[in-house]
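Hi there, hope your week has been kind to you so far. It would help a lot if you went through both lines with me. No rush at all, and the record is pasted right below:

***
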Amino acid sequence: APDIPHIDQAYSKLSNSITVEWRAVPGATSYLLTAQDGDSFVETVVTNSPGTVTGLKPATLYRITIRSINSGGKSQPSPCRKAKTVLAAPILSVSSPSCDSIAVSWKAVYMAAGFSVSLMRSDGLGIMLKENTTNTSLIFTNLEPGTLYTIKAYAWNVNGIPGDDFTYNQRTSPKAPAGVQVAYNSGALRAIVSWMPTEGALTYSVTASTGLLKLKCNTSSASCMVPSLQCGSEYYVSVTAYNDAGSSKPTDAVSLKTVPCAPVNISIEEDEPGHLLVSWSSVNLGHYYVVFVKSDDGLEVYCNTSHTQCHFQSDCGFTYFISVFAYNKAGQSPLGDVFNYTTAPCCPSDFRAVAMSSDTLQVAWAPARGAEAYETRAVDQRGVVLCHDTAAVCTLSALRCSTHYNVTVYSFSEARGSNTSCASKYVATAPCSPEIKNISKEALSVISVHWQSNNEEATYTVTARGEAGLWHCTSSGNSCTLINLPCGSAFSVSAIARSPAGQSLPSYSVPLETAPCCPNDLILTQVTQSVTNISWSVGTGAQTYVTTLESPKGQAKCHTLQNYCLLGCITCGTNYTVSLKAVSETGLTSSCTYRGYSSSACCPSGVKLYRLGNNGIRIYWRASEETISYNTDLHGSKGNFTCTPSSGLSHCDITEIPCGDVYTVVVSPVTDKGPKLTFCPKKIYSVTCSGSSVGMVIYRGKSNGEH
C-alpha cells in the first residue's frame, strides 16, 4: 500500500463542495477524499491534487481525510483537516415595478450575516450599482426603462466570507409610448391607433373604453387597429407597452368620438297633399342631419338641418325612398333603414263620359300615375252605381235614362289606398225612349204621331220607315206631323229622343198603313146601249175596288178584285158622275173622283129604207132627241156607204148604190169623239134591181142585245 498523504490545505469556494490540496505520494495511482459530518460522510476518488468533494451541505463544518491508493491497496487515512462549506447563494426574486426601477428580494440564507447585491447593464454600458444589506430585499431606482440589467447577489457569514453568488438578468419595464395618434375610419367603424416605439417594449396593448365596455388590441408593431367600435360613443384610448418585465403605465387617454348612429323612429307623413314631413329621434353625438329623398323617377333632393324634421315637396303617384343620416366631426352615420313612402295616386286626367245608351255611360280617362285600379262612382238622388277596374275605362250600366249623375273617378294603389280628392262631373244620361201613344190621319198624306214626353230638353224625331223610303218629322213637344206620305204604303213608325247627352233608344215601332192609291187612269167604254165597261190602272195598296156611276136617273155600282168592271142598267144619253173607291187589304179606303161620264145617245128606232130612183136609197128613223145627229152606215158585198145628215134630221139619202145586193144598215148617234158606236141594232135589207121596192130581209143577228 502507498504512503499516507498529508493534507496541505482544505477550503470551500462553493457551498456544496470542499477542495483539498496535498503532496503527491509515490506509487499512488489515485486518492480517496472523505468529508465527514457526524455520522454522514461523502467520498470521492481523484487522481491527483487538488481534488474536490462535492454533494456537500452549505455552511457546514466537515472533517476532511485523504488516502492514497495503488494496486497494493489503500493507505491509512491522513490526519484530518477541518473545513467549512461557504454559504449558499440567495435565490432572487426580481421584478421591475416601474420603468426605472428593479426590485430584488430573496429568502434568508442559513448562517448568513449579510448580503451583497450588484446591478449593471447587461451590455456593459454604464456603471455598476452595488448594495450591501442585512435585509432580504432592496430596490434599484433611476434605471433606464426597457433596459436589460444583470443582477448578482451573494451572502456572507460573520467572518465576511462570501458564499455562492446568484446571477439574474432582468429588464426594466418599458416606458409609456409617446406620440399616440388615433385615425378613425367612420365607414368601417374602426380606429387605427399609432405611437412612437418604446425602448425595450416587446408588445403593446391598446384599450378603448366607453362605460363598462372595453375593446383591446395587441400588437408587436407601433400601430394597432381597434375594430367593432360602436356608433354614437365616446371612447378613451390608451396604449400600454409590455415586455418580460411587465407593463408601462397606460398613456394619457385620447378621446375618440365615433360617428353618430343612424337616426331611428323615423316617421313619414303627408301632412297635406303635396308636402311630406320626415321626422326622427335625435341621436347621441349627432351635430346635424341630412335627409335624402329619391323618387322612383331618379330625381333626388336632400335637406340639411340641425333639427329632427324636414319638409319636402311631393307629387302624387310617386314612391319616395327616404334615408336619414346623422353627422358630426367624425363623419357620417352608418346607413340605417331606407324607408319608402308612396304618395296617393294621381287623379285621372282628361276624364270624359260618353252616353252609350239611355242607361249606359262609358267613362274614359288618361291613366293616372301611381294608380293600380280605379273606382268609378255615379251618384244620383236614388243611389250609387259603382264600377271597379284596372283599365282606364269603365262602363256604368243599369242607370236611369234622362238623369243627371255626379260622376267621380277615384284612383287606387295598394300602398296608399284611394285618392279621395278627385274632382267630379255632372253627366246626364241619354234621354228615355219615347212611347208612341197614338197615330192619327189628319189629311190625305198627313199623319200625326203623338207620344208621351218624359225627358227634359229633348228633341224628338219620328221616322216612318217603309219600302217607299224614310219620312221624318221633328218636335220638342209630344207630337209631330208626317207629311207627303205616299199612298198605298206600309210603314214602321218609331220615335227617338235627342239631347246634348245623347240619343235614346228607338221607341217600340207602331205599324202604319196609308190609304191605297187611286188609280191614275180610268177608261169608260160603252159596250151596249145599257152596258158600260170601266177599266183602270192598278192602285198601289188596293186590293178591291168599288166603282159607281151615278145620275139623277139612278146608280150603277160594281165591287171587284179586278181592275175592270161591267156596269149595266145604264141609261143612254145621260150624264153620270164617276167615282171609285180603292180598298186595302185592311179595309182602308181611298175615294177617288174622276171626270164625269156621259152615256151615248139612244139608238134611233123605226129604221126603214126607201128607193129613190134607180140607184138611190133614203133611210128613215125615229130620233130619240131632236138635237142629235146620226150616222148611217150601209155595208154590202158591192160596197160600203155612209151618210151623216144635219142635226135634227131623221133621214139620210145615199145615191148611186148598187142594186142586187144585201146591205146591213146601222143608224147610230154621232159621238163627239172616239169611234163610232157599234151597238145600235143592225138591219139587213135586200136592194133588188127590178121594180121600185126594197125588200127587207129579217133574220136573227146580234146587234148588242137588240134584234
